[in-house]
Amino acid sequence: MKIKKEYIILLVVIVALTVYLVSRNRDRNLYDLPQIESVDTKAITRIELTRAGAAILFDKEGSDWKIFPEKYLADPQKVKEMLAVMEGLTLTELISESKNYQRYDLDVTDGIGLKCWSKDALRFAFTIGKSAESNNHTFVKLPEDEAVYHARGNFRNKFDMPKGEFREKTVLFFDKTDIDTFAIRLDAGFETFKRVDVLQEPAEPEEKDNTSVEDGVAVRKWVDAGGGDVDDDQINGLVSTLSDLKCEKYLEGKTKDDFSEPVYTIKLKGAGTYTLSIYAEMEIENESYFPAFSSESAYPFLLTKWRAENIMKKPEDLHKNTGGA
User: Fold this and answer.
1) CATH class for the domain made up of 41-166
2) Secondary structure tally for the chain: helices H, strands E
């Protein structure tokens, strides 16, 4: 009898849940989701992100995006990703009308306000909350609408960054095939390496026959100041690394006057002249970094210890057999 009673209770619970789910789905069919007008991102000239009262402002100057008021160059890929969210924003479901915005990280403390303009005309605005548990949606709120919606996609992380993370982090860039002079200074003066054309003798044919041996082929290689052999792979690897060097982050509030002499300097010449100066190691928030300046960046930046030490080769390490010239 007891077992029969438990089955009846279970059946009642199942029926109740079924009725609730059906009625819930019917209720959701009674509303229409707001229609969001498509944003022409090519026409957008200003973006503003606001969180807890602090704003980050992006303005387009020519083809570049700048972060104001400092006019830092913004990372074009990060701006492109933000614009893509605006262009493709799609609401998929009404989630809540309870005004409990804190639950969805849509309150004044955690919500990320987004506005974009085309010149002086405000084109779009909404507030970004946290990602849904499915990781396929993000909670959002529209202006003058008290409801919370699901928007398609997990995109809060594209906006939830401090100002410095939006900056372009490429600090040295050039065409690596154009470089023909590479010089480093560790202690005293510079040691210079040059890329020259060397005539490479053809290999001897394996079998003696009447086939004529072709003339030698000119090959580009690196030599030291005296014309001695050096490790081509090492120098080519360094030049390649430096041709598209990205920093870990920028060192805010510092200028060159705040540093003594660099501990390591690299100069490269091709169509232009490029320099990288690395300064004494420092610790920030229990992490070791090397501050640096380059000819292609107006601001001091930080390299991780691993990256800096990988760049700062000793001159003797660049010679073959590590025995010096």
Assistant:
1) mainly beta
2) 4, 20
Q: Rounded to an integer, what distance in angstroms lies between the CA atom of residue 106 and that of residue 93?
A: 16
Dump pLDDT digits (tens) for 93-139. Answer: 999 999 999 999 999 999 999 999 999 999 999 999 999 998 899 99
In the chain, the amino acid numbered 51 is: R
- DSSP annotation string for 236-292: HHHHHHHTEEE-SEE-TT--GGGS-S-SEEEEEESSSEEEEEE---EEETTEEEEEE
Partners of 13 in the beta sheet?
none
pTM above 0.85, yes or no: no
Strands (DSSP E) found in the chain: 46-51, 54-61, 64-68, 72-73, 91-96, 112-118, 121-131, 137-141, 148-152, 170-173, 181-185, 191-200, 217-224, 244-246, 249-250, 264-269, 273-278, 282-284, 287-294, 297-304
User: Looking at residue 229, what DSSP letter applies?
Assistant: B
Structure confidence by residue, pLDDT tens digits, 35-59: 888 888 899 999 999 998 899 999 9
Residue the block writes with tokens 């009262």: 53
Domain boundaries, the chain: 41-166, 170-200+216-322
